[in-house]
Design a protein that fits this description.
Blueprint: E1 10-16, H1 22-30, E2 40-51, E3 54-61, E4 71-72, E5 75-77, E6 88-89, H2 93-100, H3 105-123, E7 128-129, H4 142-152, H5 158-164, E8 168-170, E9 175-181, E10 190-198, E11 215-219, H6 220-225, H7 231-236, H8 246-249, H9 252-263, H10 267-272, E12 278-280, E13 283-287, E14 290-298
Parallel strand pairs: 2-10, 6-8, 9-12
Antiparallel strand pairs: 1-14, 2-3, 2-5, 3-4, 3-11, 7-8, 9-10, 13-14
Helix pairs in contact: 2-3, 3-4
Length: 310
């Protein structure tokens, strides 16, 4: 009888480099490989919801050659305060470490905290509540924006902001996705843990007043349908996005995750899909003299058959 648990089909993918990374890539080849710069630990949250054109995800503009991509999911680097004590709902840090393949539960805890904190700072979506089954009904308004600005500006820690409102982090609302390590040649490198979460029914994302530039809910299938055009880069309408394709303004991590979202039968199917924890490390290669990133990834769909627009 044939083995039904056949191995996942892997394929080598090539991705273009953003124009601002070409100089560093050519230098890496011309001067010989050197010791890569140490990556900073980071977390990012893939926010999803169901829409009329299929599952949507929330993408925003990031300035300054972010390792997450110029257009990316909410996220950023861990800070020391992410290890502070906080009321914690959901799987224990030790369980999170096991599910993420991390030996130190304190690092796993900090990644989860950073994910929830960065999501709140950048979008206002708050995965926290007074108990294990509740969330704030709304996080809009001037008082919430002041709290976001204070946490983002490190005037107060996220743990302090939560304690003042009597809230604990709802870690049960996060799902671990994958681990991405920036390519070795990059001047800024992240070791990023990606998580997914559903858009809370009563909360709406908004830009951080002091730093936000552009962010939108976008159907995953439409993003992929227009990936060879400059539609996304032109819609963001920034000097480092205009005239660039989807691949050039995002990162391989963003593109592959968007593909997986588009392959699922809706938001719930995507979030509930049981996926092995994988680590990705894009490799710099030359293709006909042009530097590109090579990634080995699974071609399998996640969460059922490919969606059709509804």
């Amino acid at each position: 009888m044939p083995n039904s648990a056949s191995p996942l089909r892997e394929e080598q993918r090539l991705f273009p480099l953003p124009p601002d990374q070409l100089g560093a890539a050519h230098s890496w080849f011309e001067h010989g490989e050197r010791t890569p710069r140490k990556p900073r630990l980071a977390s990012s949250v893939v926010l999803v919801r169901d829409g009329a054109a299929g599952t949507e995800t929330y993408l925003g503009y990031r300035s300054g050659s972010s390792p997450l991509g110029t257009v990316a999911f909410p996220g950023g680097s861990l800070d020391d305060a992410d290890g502070e004590p906080v009321t914690w709902f959901g799987p224990s840090p030790a369980k999170w470490a096991e599910s993420m393949g991390i030996s130190d539960h304190r690092i796993a805890q900090a990644h989860v905290m950073a994910a929830i904190r960065e999501l709140f700072e950048e979008t206002g979506v708050l995965l926290a509540g007074p108990d294990e089954s509740s969330l704030p009904e709304s996080t809009s308004g001037a008082d919430w924006m002041r709290t976001r600005e204070a946490v983002a500006g490190q005037e107060k820690t996220f743990a302090e902001a939560l304690a003042r409102r009597g809230l604990g982090v709802r870690t049960d609302l996060l799902k671990p996705l994958s681990n991405w390590l920036s390519p070795d040649f990059a001047h800024r490198r992240f070791d990023t843990r990606y998580f997914s979460a559903a858009q809370p029914a009563t909360q709406r994302p908004s830009l951080l007043e002091s730093k936000g530039v552009w962010a939108e809910w976008l159907p995953a299938q439409e993003l992929l349908a227009g990936r060879d055009t400059t539609a996304l880069g032109d819609a963001v309408d920034q000097p480092d996005t205009r005239g660039l394709t989807f691949s050039e303004v995002t990162s391989p991590a963003v593109e592959i995750i968007v593909e997986k979202i588009a392959s699922a039968r809706g938001c719930i199917a995507y979030l509930s899909h049981k996926r092995p924890q994988r680590s990705y490390h894009p490799e710099l290669v030359l293709v006909d003299g042009v530097p590109m990133l090579q990634v080995v990834a699974s071609a399998a769909a996640e969460g059922g058959a490919v969606q059709r627009g509804r």
